[in-house]
Amino acid sequence: MKVILREHVEHLGERGEIVNVASGYARNYLVPKGLALAATAGNLKQIELRRKAWQVREAKEIDEFQAIADRLGQIELKITKKAGESGTLYGSVTSTEIAELLAAKGVEIDRRRIVLADPIKETGTFEVAVKLHRKVAGRVAVEVVAEEAVE
Fold first, then answer.
1. N or C, where is the chain less crowded by C-beta within 10 Å?
2. What DSSP assignment string belongs to 60-126?
């Protein structure tokens, strides 16, 4: 079944593209969620009229997210965790903790946008990727230090 995408769908296509998908996928997922329309002549005309506005909005979003990515590059986060003598953490640093520290620095990022390939389970300095937009990603430095033992 041919559909016109109203929004970007990961691993499928960009907004405004005509793609061929299984009819069940279109009928049960894409159309009810407002992500796609059936590829009819009327819908094609409607999408063409909206395409220019989408391009302007996309360019504006990319500029805004690029500014946030530049800000993220200047931020260094420091997390204190309990750790063993070898520097191995008791637990791990999560994306939620990183998002909370970024919020404290004035940058509101959804925790789902923070990409941790592997959990941080040791002390040290790490570069953490933040996927802000499908075309814009930022990086933030996270320093994990061992908590001092209080006796």
1. C
2. HHHHHHHHHHHHHHH-EEEEEE-B-TTSEEEEEE-HHHHHHHHHHTT----GGGEE-SS-EEESEEE
Q: What are the phi and psi torsion angles at 99 (to 5°)?
A: -60, -40
Q: Which residue has the tokens 């923070």?
A: 114
* DSSP string covering 107-145: ----GGGEE-SS-EEESEEEEEEEEEETTEEEEEEEEEE
Q: Tell me: the pLDDT tens digits for 40-59?
A: 999 888 888 888 888 888 89
- The phi and psi torsions of 110 (rounded to 5 degrees) equal -65, 135
Question: How far is 122 from 140, CA to CA, in rounded Å?
Answer: 17
Q: How many Å apart are CA 35 and CA 101, to the nearest integer?
A: 33
Distance CA 89, CA 145 (A): 9
Domains of the chain: 2-67 (3.40.5.10), 69-146 (3.10.430.100)
pLDDT at 149: 52
